[in-house]
Design a protein that fits this description.
Number of helices: 18
Distance between the termini: 31 Å
Structural class: alpha/beta
Number of strands: 18
Strand content: 15-25%
Shape: globular
């Protein structure tokens, strides 16, 4: 069963090579990596964010001489996941990585995921250096009660083992913490404010309102698309959540809830084909790129852009255009009787820890130091720096009180507006259960929407195919 990280070390542990200066302990003989004292971190960051993350790495290495961080970027989220899967087979997995819950569900059977709860609650101290004074300083491994309360609750709760099907079979308890949030985003409705003003239209609050506007938009802008949606899978999953249709379940006896018996779901999917044929709709897979590229074209003359675009709050910078004024609103909700369900999906990377590979001789110590590096990444000051650069929302409330971040939020540009709007939606965020196969389900329902929208399959056939491809019968 799962290896358990021992916390039975002394109350204070001293660091190797601490002479109050950096000693190059990150490299072994001949320049080879000293994995005993090098934390390997995988992320999907681009060059600009890698430069920002250097701030946290330099802070960590200054506090703990002799320790290094090797930050690697295997590619996007899926490439990170695939690389970790390969690495685990060779026992050379990273110590820390970006993750989505679906990915962690695939890691759990390997028994290499570390429960972070013992570190979160630890009162042990590690002796390091105060970077300002250069004097010896003790740093607590865990978080105080007030520090834990500083985490945005919805983000923090995502990491609990109870969100993962079968967690107990992998040696975890209900209060185990399998991930910690890094930065988060959600989906937002970006709109061409100039076009709406010309047509005297209000920003829609429900899907019914949006589709009611479509004939007017298409009449005045025949070359334009009404709505571009950046993720087929997210749209399918969000509509299931808003309407109570059922997507997936943590129940090991019935993980997949979408099927061809749901007439309401089939009716909605079939309508998408009508909207598509009328030229109202485009999605990422159909357009061949994020539909933000369509949105930013504008809709005047023969531009062929779109009036509305639904994409990540973390991608607001890609929705900016010099051709028109863009606005931001929540994703439309689904009307159910007299109520409107405005549930929106929670996205953005979390952090997962792995048992040390590469034949290290100090696995317990290295796990503690990896957690201390996590604390640098989650430090409010660094979170402010990173969030301003990335456009994602920070995971701690106190970031919003930092002067630089408040100034950023008050700038009024699209990135700041996206952060503001996303923060106001936190209570509406939802996540789907994570289990072996949940990542496949996401891919398959995205295909359902794509095929039905384009008229390549009926709703019933597409749903049946997706169910079978997920292992259903």
């Amino acid at each position: 069963m799962k290896k358990i990280v021992s916390l039975a070390l002394a109350t204070t542990i001293a660091l190797p090579c601490v002479s109050l200066v950096l000693t190059g302990c990150g490299e072994g003989p001949g320049g080879s990596t000293d994995y005993d004292h090098t934390i390997v971190f995988y992320s999907s960051q681009g060059d600009a964010l890698v430069q920002k993350t250097k701030i946290a790495i330099e802070n960590f290495e200054a506090k703990y001489p002799g320790w290094k961080v090797d930050h690697q970027q295997p590619g996007g989220y899926d490439e990170v996941k695939d690389k970790i899967g390969e690495d685990i087979q060779g026992d050379n997995q990273p110590d820390l990585a970006y993750c989505y819950a679906d990915h962690v569900a695939q890691y759990l059977p390997t028994e290499q995921v570390i429960d972070m709860k013992p570190f979160i609650e630890s009162t042990e101290t590690v002796t390091g250096v105060d970077p300002v004074s250069g004097k010896s300083a003790d740093y607590t491994i865990g978080y105080s009660a007030s520090e834990l309360n500083d985490f945005i609750k919805g983000y923090y709760e995502e990491g609990k083992a109870t969100n993962y099907s079968g967690y107990a079979s992998y040696g975890f308890s209900a209060d185990s913490m399998l991930t910690l949030p890094f930065v988060k985003s959600t989906e937002l409705l970006y709109y061409n404010a100039d076009a709406l003003k010309k047509l005297d239209l209000e920003v829609p609050k429900t899907w019914d309102e949006l589709w009611a506007q479509a004939p007017t938009i298409k009449k005045h802008y025949p070359k334009a698309t009404v709505l571009g949606y950046d993720s087929e899978a997210n749209w399918f999953i969000t509509m299931c959540e808003q309407n109570g249709w059922g997507y997936t379940s943590a129940d090991e006896n019935q993980h997949f809830l979408f099927n061809s018996n749901n007439n309401e779901l089939k009716s909605w999917l079939t309508k998408l084909n009508d909207y598509y044929e009328d030229g109202w709709l485009a999605t990422q897979q159909d357009y061949g790129s994020y539909t933000s590229a369509l949105f930013t074209k504008g809709i005047e003359a023969d531009a062929g852009g779109c009036v509305y675009c639904i994409g990540s709050s973390g991608g607001a910078s890609h929705q900016k255009s010099d051709l028109f004024t863009a606005g931001i609103a929540p994703v439309p909700g689904s009307k159910n009787g007299d109520t409107v369900n405005n549930s929106v999906i929670s996205q953005g990377p979390s952090l997962v820890m792995f048992h040390a590979g590469n034949g290290v001789s100090n696995a317990d110590e290295k796990a503690k130091m990896t957690f201390l590096f996590i604390k640098e990444l989650l430090d409010p000051t660094f979170q402010a720096e990173f969030s301003m650069a990335a456009g994602y929302n920070p995971c701690r409330n106190s970031v919003y009180e930092i002067d630089a971040y408040k100034t950023h939020m008050d700038k009024g540009d699209l990135t700041a507006a996206a952060c503001k709007t996303a923060r106001e939606l936190t209570d509406l965020f939802f996540t789907s259960p994570a289990f072996m196969g949940s990542s496949t389900a996401r891919t398959q329902v995205g295909n359902v929407l794509y095929y039905v929208m384009r008229g390549e399959k009926t709703a019933a056939d597409a749903l049946n195919d997706a169910y079978k491809n997920c292992g259903g019968k």
